[in-house]
Write a structure and sequence with these properties.
Elements lengths: L2 E2 H15 L3 E5 L15 H4 L4 E3 L4 H13 L3 E5 L10 H8 L2 H5 L6 E6 L14 H5 L5 E3 L4 H13 L4 E6 L7 E2 L13 E4 L4 E5 L3 H13 L5 E5 L2 E3 L3 H11 L2 E4 L7 H14 L8 E3 L10 H7 L3 H12 L2
Parallel strand pairs: 2-3, 2-4, 4-5, 5-7, 6-7, 10-11, 10-13, 13-14
Antiparallel strand pairs: 1-8, 6-12, 9-11
Helix pairs in contact: 1-7, 3-4, 8-12, 9-10
GO molecular function: oxidoreductase activity
Organism: Luteolibacter algae
InterPro entries: THDP-binding (IPR029061), Transketo_C/PFOR_II (IPR009014), Transketolase-like_Pyr-bd (IPR005475), Transketolase_C (IPR033248)
Length: 321
Amino acid sequence: MSVTYIDAIREAQEKLLREDERVFLYGQDIASFGGAFKATKGLAEAFPNRVFDCPISEDAMIGLAVGSAIEGMRPIVEMQFADFSSIAFNQIVNQAATHFYRTGMPIPITVRLPSGGTPGSGPFHSQSMEGIYAQYPGLVVVTPATVSDAYHMLIDSVKLDDPVLYCEHKFLYRWLKAKSIKGEHLPIGQARIARPGKHATVVTYSAMVHEAVRAADRLQADGWEIEVVDLRSVKPLDLDTVLASVARTGRLLALGEAFPWGGVTAEIVAKVTEEGFHLLDAPPQRLNARDTPVPYHPKLWAAHRPTPESICDALRKLLSF
């Protein structure tokens, strides 16, 4: 029997509620309805007075979480969509992120952000916010790309004393499956080699890991061995694993679903250029979504984000340099 990505998120929350009395869940419709994506289905009944519906006010949601963390709790807040977290931006970056620096008191909150695009979701339900939050000191930003990481990284996030933005990709919820939840368990801040190779490195995270592996599989028919690095978390960023991969291949493509200006891919290219310029045999390249709001129409959405086809094109140009 297979386990889906969304199953892993639900099971992690169930385990946390069962084993730690300080943990509670807070979000819109997560108790009575089980959440917009059913990530908390049945948990309110299993854990009375531990799973709470909240008002439609993201600012208030994070404010309550910060206050409860000060009082010793470890809340998990579900945003219905990552896009809506912008309404709580002040609480996240000005309160949660800075509180330990200002007072010496940690804020162990975990904010679940259903991230990234799906066909037909449009500009208000498809954004990737990880690069924005990674800009701010004091925040941890994780981007699980596997069923095992969806499970283990949520548990590890709640155990951290830092505020964590847990970016779960909606496209993976029911598409991504595994035989078991108990796969490889790496610590937050350590990347993994999703696919070994020797001719070029793709550094990516979240759902783009799977698109990169598909592209690498296609290029193998032409004799190219592409290495795919799954960052797993973008803050902290495992630069050592990235540089080691670039040292093996000599070429870098930084890949992300977020908008192209700034962000995670820009940071990867900057860091590799700064600290590993001598390792490069070609100028490092980036591939992101297009610099427009995310379109509604499924065909436009497919043309907006990186795909195996566009990744292959970018890699062929890189390999031909």
